[in-house]
Amino acid sequence: MAGTIEALVPGGQANPGPPLGPELGPTPVDVQDVVSQINEETAAFDGMEVPVTIEYDDDGSFTIEVGVPPTAELIKDEAGFETGSGEPQEDFVADMSIDQVKKVAEQKSTDLLSYDVKNAAKEVGGTCASLGVTIEGEDARTFDDRVDAGDYDDVLEA
Question: Which one of 4, 76, 113, 153 has the fewest CB atoms closer than 10 angstroms to its CB?
Answer without folding.
Answer: 113
